[in-house]
Structures are given as structure tokens and as C-alpha cells.
Amino acid sequence: MKARFALFRPTARIGWVTIGAILVGIGIFGAAWAAAQKEDAAASKNRKSTYAALAEAPEKAREKRNPFAGDAQAVAAGGKLFEQHCVQCHGRNAAGAKYGPSLLREEVQQATPGMLFWILTNGVVRRGMPVWSKLPEQERWQIVTFLESLKLQSTTAQSGPRNQ
Amino acid sequence: MGARVCPQLVRRKSPGFIFMVLAFSLLFCLSSPTQAQESPYIVTYDHYLEEPGSLEVEYFSTFGTQRGGNDFDAFWTEFEFGVTAWWTTEVYLAGQTTFNDSTIFTGFRWENRFRLLQREHVVNPVLYIEYENTSGADKILKEVEGHDVESDYAPSNAVLRKEHDHELELKLLLSSTFKGWNVAVNPIVTKNLLPSEPWEFAYAAGVSRPLALKASPNRCNFCPENFIAGVEMYGGLGDTQSAGLRGTSHYVAPVVAWNLPSDWTVRFSSGFGLNDNSHRLLLRWGLSREFSGFGELVERWLGGRP
What we know:
The complex is a heterodimer.
Chain A: H1 2-6, H2 10-41, H3 43-52, H4 59-62, H5 72-85, H6 87-90, H7 106-109, H8 113-122, H9 137-157
Helix pairs in contact in A: 5-9, 8-9
Chain B: H1 2-11, H2 15-30, E1 32-33, E2 55-64, E3 72-84, E4 87-98, E5 103-115, E6 124-135, H3 157-160, E7 164-178, E8 181-192, E9 199-210, E10 227-239, E11 250-259, E12 264-273, E13 281-292, H4 294-301
Antiparallel strand pairs in B: 1-13, 2-3, 2-13, 3-4, 4-5, 5-6, 6-7, 7-8, 8-9, 9-10, 10-11, 11-12, 12-13
């Protein structure tokens, strides 16, 4: 009888709490893993809606002008920033990779600089793209300038994968 | 006292440090690094989460002066994983060396951060939930809560480690970024899971800004945009039995982060106690590296698609 009651002593209770916490931990990690898998499986489906997120940019944001438009230095700096922060998801040539869609697609190419800036700032959080407002505004515009330079390249080459 | 024992800090290779070296080496071989834009805060959190699928491995060390006892070097290793763009999970393993005493493992923490709003707003809230299983000898001072004061840390490790803390910690991370400036405020509530223990309150707040807001076109180590400087402040606010500033400790700490193009981030912070209940000095440094594609790597290990 004593032994049974010992389970409810404060020290024993802490032991149970630890076991409980570990089990909850395993559960949450399992759920995290499942969520990641689900997100991955839905990734290709989501790509269309990721592009659609560009259209959600408010009018005021769309009309913003790129302060670095046509600035070769900004293209180079934006390329450096793209390599540091974006290649992981969008691939080395911005042609898309497992986690991120191609940025050579028509939807991105035809977006205004303001729309690209807005997407960079706000991300598409539910579909896997984080917010990038931690990069200062100028750096985000430098990335937009780099993406715009891709527009020029892709209109001449038109060779980006279409089915990403 | 600090000056007398400091050489020991240099000579001693702590188990935490060795563990950190092994962890970094393993990940170095298996995953591809990516440059992070890490904030300089060590105690305060902003609203930015880990990128999905990325793992960040961090090692931090805190050297603290101790009146009425021996100075210490507390260390911890963090494994931070971006599950989704709105959820980051993190495990900490902590230990400490108290000079002229011993080196011990002091426990683990498991935290989760959830972004509450999809888009950027003037103030961005993130919910932080942490479970902590540590001994009373834990000295990383990652949070200063309730009536935590310097004298709590004075007894020997043998005495302190007899106490066990099982805590649930909740934070609301409020953060805003405007024209390069980040302002973050974290109200904190902690509950020891023993029913008799009260809820404790605390705060952490920080301001930071990169030294330059525009990136240079070339790869460079010492470009000003690689440095983010700021200041953070943290301390306890009492508990449900006696809320307020009485019998609490507070710190202010200038902080700096150096985001290297070689994918490492180095952080420094020198915290100064603001009242008689506080340690005089908390000297912190941290080293971290972010590994992208870690999620894919695990997936491959578990037999998923390459």
C-alpha cells in the first residue's frame, strides 16, 4: 500500500512528469516530422499557390519603385545575398529546387519590383517561405534587383524549367 | 577574484566544448552550410525563426563572477531545427565549471517557437514554450526569473545539484523591425512543476541594428553589414507571492554578432549587473553555424526519397 502511495509523492511525481515530458516530446517531434513530410508532399501542389501569393500584394506595395533599378552594383550585391540566403530553397540558378519554386517562371518574371519586395518581406509562411524582413530594406531591394536581372536573362534564353 | 581564476577558463577543456566540437565536425561532413543573418541577442528573442529544414548548431559560454563563492563558466549547446516556416524546435544541453570546485552536466531544455501571424506587422508575436529539466547548479543564466539573485549560485556544486528544477516556461516574443532597427520585448512567465511553487515573472528586451544596411557586392569578412550591434536588458519581476522589483536581479549587456561569409556566426556580450543582487559581470560568447538541407539528410537516413 505504501509503495502504491509512493507514486504520488512529490519526488515520484517529478519522475512521472519527466517521463510524461519525454513522451510528449517524442509525440511532438513525431508530429513535427509528419508535418514536415506532409508539407513536402504538398510542396508541388503548393507551388502554384506560392505564385498566387504574389497576387495578394496590396496595391500600394505593388507600386513601390526599386531604388536600385538598373544599378549593376546592386545586381552583384543582390546576387551575393541570393547565394547566401535563397539558393538553399530556390536552387543555384533560381530555377527551383525541392523546397522552393522556380523564380524564372512567368508569374515571377512579370511581377512588379514592389510585388517581389512584398513577398520577400512577408514570406509565404503557411507554404514554407519564411519572412525576410530581418534583411534590411536596402538588401531586400538588392535581391529584387538581382531577380530583375534574371528577367532580362530569361527573356533572351527562355530556358528555365516550366514544371517546377 | 575573476582575474585570479580566469586562466583556468583558458586551460580547461570543458566536456561541453568537446561535445560541441564533435557535433560541429559531424554536421560539417554531412550537411551543406548556409550563411545566416543572426541577431546578436543571447537572452532576448526576436520573431525570426529558423528556415525550414535547416539545423543551427550553437555553442555558448558564460563566464560569471560570484561574490561569496567561486567564479564559474557555464556552457550550453543548442540544436535548433526549422520544422516549418512557422515552427522552430530546439534542444539545449547545459553544463558548468565552477572554479576550484567541479565540472558538471546540469540538464536540458526543450523549446518550441510558433509564429502566430502569417505576415509581417508592426509588432510580430511569436509564442515560446519551453520545458526545462535542470539541476539547481545550472548557471547559464539564459533567463533570470522571479527572485533569482547572485547569492543563489554561491554554494558548492555538490549542494546545488541536489535541487531539481522541472519548469514550464512561456514567453511572448514581441518584435519589430523598422529601417534596420530591431526592437524585441519578451515578457516571461515560468512555473516550476511542483504544485507548491509559485509562477515567476521575468522580462528580456533588446535593440539592435546592422552596422550597414546595404550589402557590398563582394564577399568580405569585415564588411560593416556583417556586424550587428545592440544592447539587451533582462531580469526578474518577482512571483505570484511577491511580484515587483524587490529582491530581483537585472542586467544590461551590449551585444554584437559577426556573421561571417564562411557561414559561421560569432557573438559577444558583456553583461553588467544593475543592482546588488546581480552578478557583477556576465561575459558571454557564442559560436554557431547553420546547416541547410538537414531535413533532407534525415529523410534520406529514414529511407525517404533522395
